[in-house]
Design brief:
Structural class: alpha+beta
Order of helices and strands: HHHHHHEEEEEEEEHEEHHHH
Oligomer: single chain
Strand content: 15-25%
């Protein structure tokens, strides 16, 4: 078993790291302060081929595989978790179209969302349907050649900026989860509007919004897959998305560890560098161990997905462990920085705020423990 990256993966990681240092890092603090969506950075990522990773070349994407996507998201997250979240969540839409869409949908949407610079989003969550996805209330009732959508979605990352969204709605409200379907909604469709823009603790520049559907009419050809198969589509998409969140968490943890190492080598107290203090060295040992374990769990989940093997349990494990590792490592790194770490002059306080969401979105840690325990017990 070879744990080394291929030459192609190593080169892509290097390109993504250089991009993050040049294009992402200089904007991170300001974007966190203003909450401004990084549209220009997204367009630059599209030109680099990052937004089309995972989309086949024949459909206008960059090709590559799940590990490649993970590597890019990780490197972007090291410098700005909000920008990484935007990229990671954008890739959910094309993954749904690739697996479940019609040839017409693939031909229309994939080139635009691949390297074409169009942003996409995934709309499942509602005020009463967070961890309990079965409580979705938004409806999509057939009327001739159209569906008429009514309802509200909340906490949708990039939803106010997205050109295309896959919206999960009940085409048969009497049939519970078996009545849930996935439907494409395009920006600017009459009856579709943006509601509240959330003020968040972290990943502030990713923009998280409320979506409102008021007699919003979309063509029936915008149905993805079959009617009533929306729950399966959503869960399949979330399995992959969890590798993306785990990659975000890994990037945050790696950068926090590097910040701690750099600070300990530079900071002198009691006439000696912090590296001379055994207690802090033990912190570094714990942090580095968790980062390394998280990395290989993320890589393993990505490998299983790209090779067509079952990966639901492993994706949940990677997301659970990497997100908790991100919180652990950023917290200890901030502690090592002392009072300086608490100040905005250093990136640790932002990184700690950003890390927290990785334990919550795309399934809370508690939900992942349910997923993992069911798989193990089964």
């Amino acid at each position: 078993m070879n744990f080394n990256l291929s030459d192609a993966h190593a080169m892509l990681q290097k390109v993504a790291r250089e991009f993050a240092e040049k294009e992402v890092a200089p904007l991170a603090a300001e974007l966190d302060l203003t909450g401004e969506f990084p549209r220009e950075t997204f367009e630059k990522m599209a030109k680099c081929g990052f937004t089309g990773i995972g989309t086949p070349v024949e459909y206008g994407g960059s090709g590559a595989d799940e590990l490649a996507k993970s590597l890019v998201v990780t490197e972007i997250a090291r410098k700005c978790a909000a920008t990484a979240a935007t990229l990671s969540i954008h890739t959910i839409f094309p993954s749904v179209i690739i697996k479940f869409g019609t040839e017409e949908q693939k031909t229309k949407y994939l080139p635009l969302c691949g390297d074409g610079g169009k942003l996409s989003a995934f709309a499942l969550t509602e005020p009463n349907a967070g961890s309990d996805a079965g409580s979705v209330k938004t409806t999509a009732i057939a009327d001739g050649d159209e569906y008429v959508l009514n309802g509200t979605k909340c906490f949708i990352t990039g939803g106010g900026q997205a050109d295309y969204l896959v919206v999960f709605s009940l085409t048969d409200p009497t049939n519970g989860l078996k009545g849930l379907s996935a439907i494409i909604v395009e920006k600017g469709t009459p009856g579709f509007s943006i509601g509240k823009i959330e003020e968040k603790m972290g990943i502030r520049a990713s923009e998280t919004v409320e979506l409102i559907f008021d007699n919003c009419r979309v063509p029936r050809k915008n149905l993805v897959g079959k009617e009533g198969k929306g729950f399966n589509i959503a869960m399949t998409a979330l399995d992959g998305a969890r590798i993306g969140v785990a990659s975000q968490a890994l990037g945050i943890a790696e950068e926090a560890l590097d910040e701690a190492v750099k600070y300990m080598k530079e900071r002198v107290q009691f006439g000696q560098p912090l590296t001379a203090l055994q207690g802090l060295n033990w912190y570094i040992a714990e942090m580095a161990t968790k980062v390394e374990a998280a990395k290989w769990m993320v890589y393993n989940a990505a490998f299983l997905k790209q090779t067509g093997q079952p990966f639901t349990k492993e994706a949940a494990m990677a997301k659970l462990f990497a997100s908790e590792a991100a919180m652990f490592v950023t917290n200890l790194s901030l502690q090592i920085h002392g009072g300086y770490g608490y100040m905005k002059d250093y990136p640790l306080e932002r990184m700690l705020r950003d890390a927290k969401i990785t334990e919550i979105y795309e399934g809370t840690s508690e939900i992942h423990k349910v997923v993992i325990s069911r798989a193990v017990l089964r």
